[in-house]
Specification:
Blueprint lengths: L4 H20 L16 H73 L5 H17 L5 H12 L19 H11 L11 H19 L2 H20 L6 H22 L6 H4 L13 H10 L21
């Protein structure tokens, strides 16, 4: 027991010392933490929202402007297209009216040249001449009209002493070559067909214009062949008298026709026939109309032009 007393005493002293230290020691207070509460964060969110909304409005407006510009462009293109179509329509109407006027003027000229031709046939000959000159643009329909007037007096059955035939007096050998070029089978009646004779004459004139580009030389060869055309150019005495007279005669008539048609062909009643004739009536049978027409006065036509070319060996 005596040996353990010092140990117990020292232990108690150590415990008392720790107790005193614990009682006398004051721990340092913890540092305070500051929590900062930012003011106005709601205004920032509102401002951000307004900015996004403004950008959306700008983008939407830009999209609408682009759409409006595209619509304006489409509208302008549609208006321009409509204007072009209107101009084409107006020009087409003007062309058709002018063509109709020329057609009727040519018909009336043919009626004056050949009083025996019917109104329907005169219209047919004029229409054929206009149609082929549209197919062969180098040939003026009025020049073709002048040639038909001088050559045959617009008699489709005309035949010259040299065997030139039809409206435009084409010689059979020339007719065979032209028919071959046009893909036709040549027959003895081919040149008496007004449609074929007209197209053959226009093709021949088109070929001659490509070779000469001079109406005088074209007419000289059309009437007298290449040999007489050479004589005409050289102005030698060997030139056939008929060709020498034929060229100025056709050109003079052609000039008169151009002057007449530039001022507008005169469409007078007497050129259509008797102005007092009975017309067709609605609801009346055609036989009755024919019987009344037979009792009506005959048509009075203007003075016929002298054909003069029915005996000419033209279009060799």
């Amino acid at each position: 027991m005596g040996r353990n007393e010092p140990l117990s005493r020292s232990s108690e002293e150590y415990a008392d010392r720790r107790l005193r230290l614990a009682l006398t020691h004051h721990p340092e207070p913890p540092e305070p933490r500051t929590i900062v509460i930012r003011q106005g964060s709601g205004w920032q969110l509102a401002f951000l929202f307004l900015c996004l909304l403004f950008m959306a409005v700008v983008l939407l407006g830009h999209h609408e402007l682009r759409g409006l510009d595209a619509r304006n462009h489409a509208t302008g293109a549609a208006i321009a297209s409509a204007e072009r179509k209107l101009q084409q329509l107006e020009s087409g109407i003007g062309y058709d009216a002018r063509r109709r006027q020329v057609l009727l003027g040519m018909r009336n000229h043919i009626l004056k040249v050949n009083p025996k031709v019917s109104l329907a046939d005169a219209y047919l000959y004029a229409r054929l001449a206009l149609d082929v000159t549209e197919k062969y643009p180098s040939v003026d329909p009025l020049l073709l009209l002048a040639i038909g007037t001088v050559e045959s007096g617009y008699d489709p059955q005309a035949k010259s002493r040299a065997d030139a035939r039809g409206l435009y007096q084409i010689w059979p050998s020339t007719g065979r070559m032209l028919a071959r070029s046009l893909g036709w089978n040549y027959e003895e009646t081919t040149l008496y067909d007004p449609e074929k004779n007209t197209e053959a004459a226009a093709l021949y004139l088109d070929i001659l214009f490509a070779a000469y580009n001079d109406p005088q030389m074209v007419l000289a060869e059309y009437n007298g062949g290449p040999v007489n055309a050479g004589y005409y150019r050289a102005d030698v005495a060997a030139l056939a008298a008929e060709t020498r007279n034929y060229v100025p005669r056709v050109l003079e008539l052609y000039a008169r026709l151009k002057d007449q048609f530039e001022t507008g062909p005169t469409l007078q009643a007497e050129l259509y026939g008797n102005a007092q004739r009975e017309g067709k009536l609605l609801g009346v049978r055609s036989s009755a109309v024919v019987s009344r027409s037979a009792s009506a006065p005959a048509r009075t036509s203007g003075p016929a032009a002298d054909p003069g070319g029915s005996g000419s060996p033209s279009a060799r």
